[in-house]
UniProtKB/TrEMBL annotation:
It catalyses: D-sedoheptulose 7-phosphate + D-glyceraldehyde 3-phosphate = D-erythrose 4-phosphate + beta-D-fructose 6-phosphate. The keyword Metal-binding does not apply. This is Probable transaldolase. Transaldolase is important for the balance of metabolites in the pentose-phosphate pathway. The active site is at K87. Its EC number is 2.2.1.2. PANTHER family: FRUCTOSE-6-PHOSPHATE ALDOLASE 1-RELATED (PTHR10683:SF40), TRANSALDOLASE (PTHR10683).
């Protein structure tokens, strides 16, 4: 399972990269705004900086919602760096654009997916990744993980090449369940990745090993 970090914060991206387990990055307009990155030129320059840190797929989201402008924005983004994946919302013109990008060999991430039907449509259109939002479904009392399970099953039934990128992953159990189900990718904040390190028995065991080692060196 690939690990993507879901942030536009360069320090966090660098930290996850330095851990040696990072495969890519996802961003969205809200994450860009959170870092105070506004304006076309600043946003594009920021994507380039991310691409300099991580040699993996970097999702950059279009802002347009009409076909012609989605194509224009997506082609511009794809020209920025070979690792850019054009992130397109699950809307009518978005699906049409994903088909266009797919035929042009431009990688896509179909975002804001909340149902199995939407995921089937994304795969039929030729999306490279589909992003079902686990946490946001949980937020409205719907089992987000069940959707991941459904999509993985459906894609396997038909051999769809679209990769299931579990998004809106909020905690370690989400990540572990995605791995059990067989999601291709999870994207999550840095704290979810670093939380994987933690177990109290590891801390207790290490303290004892070091204390016992110190006894022999007195
Ligand atoms: C996906 O690519 C989105 O950027 C993200 O995972 C949304 O997560 P959130 O629901 O925690 O905002």
């Amino acid at each position: 399972m690939k690990f993507f970090i879901d942030t536009a914060n360069l320090q966090e991206i660098q930290e996850a990269h330095d851990l040696g387990v990072l495969d890519g990055v996802t961003t969205n307009p809200s994450l860009m705004a959170k870092e105070g990155i506004f304006g076309h030129d600043n946003v594009m320059a920021h994507y380039k900086k991310i691409c300099e840190i991580v040699d993996g797929d970097i999702s950059a989201e279009v802002i347009a919602t009409d076909y012609e402008t989605i194509i224009k924005e997506g082609e511009f983004l794809a020209e920025l760096h070979p690792n850019i994946v054009v992130k397109v919302p699950m809307i009518r013109d978005g699906v049409k654009a994903i088909r266009y990008f797919s035929e042009k060999g431009i990688k896509t991430n179909c975002t804001l997916v909340f149902s199995a039907g939407q995921a089937i449509l994304a795969a039929k259109a030729g999306a490279t990744y589909v992003s079902p939002f686990v946490g946001r479904l949980d937020d409205v009392s719907t089992d987000g993980m069940q959707l991941i399970d459904q999509i993985v099953q459906i894609y396997s039934n038909y051999g769809y090449q679209t990769q299931v990128l579990a998004a809106s992953v909020r905690h370690v159990m989400h990540l572990v369940q995605c791995a059990e189900i067989g999601a291709d990718v999870v994207t999550c904040p840095l704290n979810v990745i670093t939380s994987l390190l933690n177990h109290p028995l590891t801390d207790i065991g290490l303290s004892k090993f070091l204390a016992d080692h110190a006894k022999g060196n007195k």
